[in-house]
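Sequence, please.
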């Protein structure tokens, strides 16, 4: 199959999932064309079946905001026609689904082909941005015009139905993880640099937006540090980072916290962790948590959104209500004081992550594509 994948090229879950999906499809012999405004951060391998098409947005004095959606649709048309794509798989409703609809109509007019469009919903495109009255009519129309719609969790599926008038079936295809990649033996030298005296290591990774409630991570860690020798790694960057660095100083824990910024090789960092903290206000799925579990790390998270679909209370980790710093602190302290239970839950987390291994999920997407692909596929 010749598949066009449209996504955001960033560190966010939708971009990571789309890129890893494309790489896996290419490994299985499919021809994959990424269409986005810059090379995706996880697109760091050479594969003769992978092609990258940059969306170039002209700038004119007339425009305060360059018309990205128009440039994206035009690039889609060019790639579909010149590379004879069998279908488009767009990730994130805004603006990819609407641009795909526009491209589909243009291609149909130009050469009579009806190119299938599959839209995958990832979370904030529905729960935050999509609910804005400015975008809602276009989002609803574009989703309904898709030939197939998928969501990354049952929670997101239900959120979409409750927020929009969707007339088609939304299929749930869970996010996935390459368990082989994350099942790594910890680098002793790296761990000793982070925790030279054998301290426990906690990790948080996100885009540091308000919805992630990153200050809660530092509050939990400050409570843990009173009871257990520990270090905290903060991975990622975003608008909340400066305030979090200031909070670490105010709490007196800054000597035990490292802000690492954006990192591509998360498997090496997660491999040395004991506990992964995710106090988000909402997660449609929680891909970062799944990757941590695949790296044998215990997840302590909120019970928001779809997190309960991957994090099993008192088995793979612990969950608390949003904002309940005391409960999360309690879980972390008691777990980190009990090495036997910590090791058992690490293994349980890894075993549960295997259910979401990429080898189980890719065939589901291939089967979905096959329903819409031309006969010669």
């Amino acid at each position: 199959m010749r598949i066009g994948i449209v996504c955001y090229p960033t560190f966010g879950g939708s971009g990571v999932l789309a890129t890893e999906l494309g790489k896996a499809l290419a490994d299985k012999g499919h021809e994959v064309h990424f269409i986005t405004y810059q090379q995706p951060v996880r697109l760091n391998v050479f594969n003769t079946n992978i092609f990258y098409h940059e969306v170039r947005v002209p700038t004119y004095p007339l425009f305060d905001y360059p018309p990205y959606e128009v440039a994206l649709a035009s690039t889609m048309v060019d790639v579909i026609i010149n590379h004879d794509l069998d279908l488009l798989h767009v990730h994130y409703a805004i603006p990819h689904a609407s641009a795909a609809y526009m491209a589909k109509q243009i291609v149909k007019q130009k050469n009579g082909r009806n190119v299938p469009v599959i839209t995958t919903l990832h979370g904030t495109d529905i729960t935050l941005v999509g609910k804005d009255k400015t975008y809602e009519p276009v989002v609803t129309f574009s989703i309904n015009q898709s030939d197939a719609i998928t969501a990354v969790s049952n929670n997101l599926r239900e959120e979409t139905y409750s927020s929009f008038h969707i007339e088609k079936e939304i299929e749930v295809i869970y996010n996935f993880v390459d368990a082989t990649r994350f099942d790594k033996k910890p680098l002793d030298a790296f761990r000793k640099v982070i925790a030279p005296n054998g301290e426990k290591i906690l990790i948080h990774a996100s885009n540091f937006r308000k919805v992630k409630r990153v200050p809660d991570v530092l509050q939990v860690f400050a409570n843990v540090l009173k009871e257990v020798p520990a270090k905290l790694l903060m991975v990622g960057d975003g608008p909340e980072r400066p305030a979090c660095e200031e909070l670490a100083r105010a709490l007196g824990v800054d000597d035990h916290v490292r802000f690492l910024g954006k990192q591509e090789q998360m498997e090496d960092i997660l491999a040395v962790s004991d506990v992964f903290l995710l106090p988000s206000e909402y997660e449609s799925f929680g891909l970062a948590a799944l990757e941590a579990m695949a790296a044998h790390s215990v997840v302590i998270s909120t019970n928001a959104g779809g997190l309960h679909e991957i994090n099993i209370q008192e088995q793979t980790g612990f969950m608390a209500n949003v904002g309940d710093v005391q409960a999360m602190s309690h879980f972390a302290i008691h777990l980190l004081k009990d090495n036997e239970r910590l090791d058992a839950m690490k293994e349980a987390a890894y075993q549960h992550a295997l259910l979401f291994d990429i080898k189980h999920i890719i065939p589901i997407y291939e089967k979905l594509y096959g329903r819409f692909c031309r006969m010669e596929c």
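Residues 96-111 form the longest helix (16 residues).
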